[in-house]
Amino acid sequence: MSRKLRILEVNKAYYPHVGGIESLVKQYAENFSDRADVKVLVCREDRGKSFTVKVNGVEIVRSGSFGTYFSCPLSLSFIMNFRKMAKNADVVHINVPFPLADLACLLSGYEGRVVVSWHSDVVKQKKLLMLYKPLMMRFLKRADLILAATEGHIKSSPYISVHKEKCRIVPYSINVKKYLEAPQKPVLSDILTDKKAVKVFFTGRLVYYKGVDVLINAFRNVKNCELFIAGTGKLEKELKEYTSKHGMNDRVHFLGFLPDEELKAAFRDCDIFVLPSVENSEAFGIVQLEAMVYSKPVINTALPTGVPYVSLDGESGITVKPNDANALSEAINKLAENKELRESYGREAYNRVCRFFDDSVVLDRIYDALSMGGKLN
C-alpha cells in the first residue's frame, strides 16, 4: 500500500505576508496537501518565540526570530526546527535566496531529497554576497534538483548555471479560472480625468528596481493616456513629488495598496500593462500573467532574467531596453494609438497564459519534481 509523500516547504515567510514568493509557497502547500503530507517552515517577521498555526488546513511552523538583517531573518530556532522537521520529510523544498535555509540544511545532516526553487540571485546586498557565496555554492552542490521559472533565470545566474545539468525549467503560474471569475469594476475608469484616455497600469512595490521613476519620466512624452500606479514603498513620496513638479497630477494617479479583488478589477479595466523594471532583482514578474489573463498587452524590459520570457516582444506585447524612458514612451504611444494592435497582442497574451502558465499545467510538474515522478511505496 502506498503512503503519501511527506513534503517540507521552506521559506522566509508565509501568508499573510504579502510577496510573490510567499504567494507561491502558499499555492504549493495548499495544492499539494490534497495528495501529500505537507508542512511549512518559515520565520516570524517580528521578534518572539516559535509557534505553530494552521492556515487553510496546512500546518505552519513560524520559527522564533531576533529580527531581520539584510532582508534575512536571524533565527537559531529555525535551524533547530529544520533539523527536527526534515527527519520526517521525504523531500525538502527550499525557496531561495534565503541564506539561513542553506545553512540549516547543511547543518541538519538531512540525507533525503532536496529540491531548490531558485527565484533570483542576490543582487543588492553585494557585501553580504561575498560572505554568503561559499555557503550558497556548497548548498547548490548538495541540492538534488534546481527549479527555475525560465531559461533566463539559468542563463543570467553565474551560480545555478554552474549546475545547469540538474536545473529544470518550471514557470510560475496562476489560476486562470479564478481570475476570470473575479467581478468587473471600473476602478480605473471611474477616476479618469479624460474619459477618452487610454488607461496604462502598473502595480508593484515602489522600490529602486521596479523602474517606476523611468515610467513616470517616460509619461511626460505620452499622449492621450493616463497612468495608474498601485502599490506603496520607499520611493512613494519622491515619485509623487516628481509627478507634481512636472504638472502631471491630472494624468498620473497613485492608488496606494489595492486589496486582491480591487487589484484584479484594475487589471481587467486597464488597456495597457507596463512592467518597467531596471534591475535583475526582477526575475519574472508574475504581475505580467495577471494582466495577460485579462487579454491585456504588456510592455516589459529586456532584462537578462525571466521577465522577457513571460510576455514576448511582438507577440503579446512590446519589450524595451531597461532604463530607457524614450523607448518606453514610444512603446506606450504605439499601443495607445493602435487599438487593433492592443487587441491582437491581448488575445495572444491570454492564449499564452492558458498554454504555459495555468495552475493546471504547472503545479503537476512541480509535484512531479518533488516526488521523482510519483508517490513513495
| Structural class label | alpha/beta
3D shape: globular
Q: How would you state the average pLDDT, rounded?
A: 92
Segments where pLDDT lies below 50 for 5+ residues? none
Descriptive report:
This protein is of the alpha/beta class. The chain is built from 14 helices and 16 strands. It has helices spanning 20-32, 76-86, 99-108, 126-142, 151-156, 176-181, 212-218, 236-245, 260-269, 286-292, 307-310, 325-336, 339-357, 359-371, and strands spanning 5-10, 36-43, 51-55, 58-63, 68-69, 72-73, 91-96, 113-118, 145-148, 167-169, 198-203, 225-230, 252-256, 272-274, 298-301, 317-320. The strands form 3 sheets. An 8-stranded mixed β-sheet has the order 3-4-2-1-7-8-9-10, sandwiched between helices. A 6-stranded parallel β-sheet has the order 13-12-11-14-15-16, sandwiched between helices. Strands 5-6 form a two-stranded antiparallel ribbon. Helix 2 (76-86) packs across helix 3, helix 7 packs across helix 12 and helix 13 packs parallel to helix 14. The radius of gyration is 21 Å and the shape is globular.
Short description:
The chain is α/β, with parallel strands linked by helices and 377 residues long.
What would the keywords be for this entry?
14 helices, 6-stranded parallel beta sheet, 20% strand, 377 residues, alpha/beta, 8-stranded mixed beta sheet
What topology emerges from the helices and strands here?
Elements: E1 5-10, H1 20-32, E2 36-43, E3 51-55, E4 58-63, E5 68-69, E6 72-73, H2 76-86, E7 91-96, H3 99-108, E8 113-118, H4 126-142, E9 145-148, H5 151-156, E10 167-169, H6 176-181, E11 198-203, H7 212-218, E12 225-230, H8 236-245, E13 252-256, H9 260-269, E14 272-274, H10 286-292, E15 298-301, H11 307-310, E16 317-320, H12 325-336, H13 339-357, H14 359-371
Parallel strand pairs: 1-2, 1-7, 2-4, 7-8, 8-9, 9-10, 11-12, 11-14, 12-13, 14-15, 15-16
Antiparallel strand pairs: 3-4, 5-6
